[in-house]
Specification:
This protein is an alpha+beta fold. The protein has three helices and six strands. Strand 5 and strand 6 form a beta hairpin.
Length: 138
């Protein structure tokens, strides 16, 4: 499967989900990373008119969990996020942010990902760690 096919499949899972509501779109997949983007506008603002940390966390968890499932590539397993830690370093009022997940650890039952969230100028907006558990599908 080529990268464009992989992105089309990943984006097809967004329909009727929080990812669709937040307009999250997977944009790049590599040998060891997955990237998605999300627009920053009034839909994801907090009352001060800047990007809401919860929307940023939703983007980070989406990319980290999706990366686990994608690189695991095992239809008998399901991936669930069990811990999310995020530091918000810079505010953002409008534009687009990009989240890239890279594996720190991919074991049989747990995966640990670092997710860097940057803006269009590659300024670091947030830094996240997400731990996922890999379970057998019931």
């Amino acid at each position: 499967m080529n990268k464009q096919q992989s992105l089309a499949i990943l984006n097809s899972y967004n329909k009727n989900t929080l990812m669709e509501t937040l307009e999250i779109e997977f944009t790049e997949v590599g040998d060891d990373f997955l990237t998605a983007k999300m627009p920053v506008n009034s839909k994801v603002h907090q009352p001060y008119g800047i990007l809401h940390g919860g929307a940023t966390a939703a983007l980070a968890e989406t990319v980290g969990s999706s990366a686990s499932a994608f690189f695991l590539n095992d239809s008998t397993k399901i991936v669930k996020g069990i811990e999310l830690s995020i530091n918000h370093l810079k505010s953002k009022k409008e534009g687009v942010i990009f989240a890239t997940a890279r594996a720190i650890h991919q074991g049989k039952t747990t995966h640990l990902w670092e997710v860097k969230i940057v803006d269009e100028q590659n300024n670091l907006i947030s830094l996240c760690k997400i731990t996922n558990i890999v379970l057998d599908k019931k």
